[in-house]
What does this fold into?
Amino acid sequence: MLKKQIVNFILVGVINTVVGYGLYALFLFIGFHYILAVFFATVLGVLFNFKTIGKYVFNSIDNKLIIKFFGVYGLVFIVNIVLIKVFKDFGFDEYLAGLIATFPSAIISFVLNKYYVFKGGLEK
It folds into this structure.
């Protein structure tokens, strides 16, 4: 069960990451500060991610869970900002720092979505 959810999360996560990172890179490219780039990419990606993660990973279509999902993404947003800042301090540019921050953020997102947001949903 958990293995299947992790595999589905990775597959859905690849799509969500392409969308989210693409938005982040676009906002950097047009001149946004990295904090604003993360903010707008997160906000625009949340609804898409809610539907894909809920349906394809946790077999849930309960729209009432969106508030908890926003909370998780608020925390992931903060983690992203901190990680990007740390990687920038080590000399990485904002594009690479954002890409590297994606991986620990994805792990945090999976754990919080599984055990906090979608814990009452049907399991696949």
The CA atoms of residues 54 and 60 lie 5 Å apart. The helical segments are 2-29, 34-56, 66-89, 94-117. Residues 2-29 form the longest helix (28 residues).
